[in-house]
UniProtKB/TrEMBL annotation:
Family annotation (CDD domains): cupin_11S_legumin_C, cupin_11S_legumin_N
Similarity comment text for this entry: Belongs to the 11S seed storage protein (globulins) family.
Superkingdom assignment: Eukaryota
Species this protein is from: Linum tenue
Lineage of producing organism: Eukaryota, Viridiplantae, Streptophyta, Embryophyta, Tracheophyta
Record bears the keyword Disulfide bond: yes
GO molecular-function term, one example from the UniProt record: nutrient reservoir activity
Name of this chain's protein: Cupin type-1 domain-containing protein
Keyword Disulfide bond found: yes
Domain Cupin type-1: 3-157, 195-339
């Protein structure tokens, strides 16, 4: 498979006083195009407003930093105004109109990962803005705007020409946006930082999985996700997605080493990953990570709403399910070697604490 899997940082797309929008380019990270995956990051400064838009792709939004407010209008539904905070995962199906606002001093940073298979460009999100210099009003003639919205010429000029910003603007303190409603978070948001742990291994790591059970809306977007926190020096068992899914991983914090092994036992990636980088593991390729002493965390989407993984080491290793004779013959080793191999990691699950 002749595709560069090297982890990449995003590039600036546009921005200003209100904030910035960055995206990973499929020309730099070829697996985005091959896997039909889009990845982008929104950063909003205080009083920054990301103008209302909809996208050509279903996606998961994940709040990396800060607190803010988001407006979400699902097709044929009323607007939901939600307070968002670090750790929130939000499922955004096709046709969802969203806006994002930060009224705090700390920058609000939101990661977007999604499926571009039905989009205009493989590996990239295309957003359609309702307002601003690139909004839909600027494309229609005055006659069409006037007749569609039943407004006079003066109002048409105000709608089309008043907003000079593109994508992101900075509001002054006099504008008051809707306050979030606690009940609007229901069935739309799942906080991965506060949720019950699906895996918790002492000195190893912890996992929270986002799936159809805790956020049913992910079934509609066709994506699952997880937040993994690996303790200092710990290892994540070699494993692969056994249901033909891609793993798209964003390093949230820390650093560590990663190896990926593909077809014919070829090591296709061996590198150090750091906070802010994104990398993609192809279907059925085996990946393993060892984090540095300060630990490492990552947020991933998997291109199926209820992913299933097979691990090659630990108590649940597929090796332990195979009969001893098959292992002896396959490895061409003695029964003593096979017993030693099978007898290790009998209690460890998918994370292995550092050796003492």
């Amino acid at each position: 498979m002749d595709v560069d899997l090297t982890p990449k940082l995003p590039k600036n797309v546009f921005g200003g006083d209100g904030g910035s929008y960055q995206a990973w380019c499929p020309d730099d990270l070829g697996m985005l195009k091959r896997g039909n995956i889009g990845a982008a990051k929104l950063g909003l400064q205080k009083n920054g407003l990301a103008l209302p838009r909809y996208s050509d792709s279903a996606k998961v939004a994940y709040v990396l930093q800060g607190n803010g407010v988001a407006g979400v209008v699902l097709p044929e539904k009323d607007e939901k105004v939600i307070g968002i905070r670090k750790g929130d995962a939000i499922a955004l199906p096709f046709g969802a109109v969203t806006w994002w606002y930060n009224k705090e001093d700390t920058e609000l940073i939101v990661l977007f990962l999604g499926d571009t298979s039905k989009g205009h460009k493989a590996g990239s999100f295309t957003d359609f803005y309702l307002t601003g210099t690139n909004g839909i009003f600027t494309g229609f003639s005055s006659e069409f705007v006037s007749r569609a919205w039943d407004v006079d010429e003066t109002t048409v000029k105000a709608l089309v020409g008043s907003q000079s910003g593109k994508g992101i603007v900075k509001l002054d303190g006099s504008i008051k946006l809707p306050e979030p409603k606690k009940e609007d978070r229901d069935r739309l948001v799942y906080n991965c930082e506060e949720a019950p742990l699906d895996v918790d291994i002492k000195n190893g790591g912890r996992v929270v999985v986002l799936n159809t059970k805790n956020l049913p809306l992910v079934a509609e977007i066709g994506l699952g996700a997880d937040l993994v926190k690996l303790d200092g020096g710990a290892m994540c068992s070699p494993g692969f997605s056994c249901d033909s899914a891609l793993q798209v991983t964003y390093i949230v914090s820390g650093s560590g080493r990663v190896q990926v092994v593909g077809v014919d036992g070829k090591r296709v990636l061996e590198t150090t990953v750091k906070a802010g980088q994104l990398f993609i593991v192809p279907r059925f390729f085996v990946v393993s990570k060892i984090c540095d002493p300060d630990g490492m965390s990552w947020f991933s989407i998997i291109t199926t709403p209820d992913p299933v993984f097979t691990h090659l080491a630990g108590r649940t290793s597929v090796w332990k399910a195979l009969s001893p004779a098959v292992l002896e013959a396959s490895f061409k080793v003695s029964s003593e070697v096979e017993k030693k191999f099978r007898g290790t990691r009998t209690s460890d699950e998918i994370f292995f604490p550092p050796s003492k």
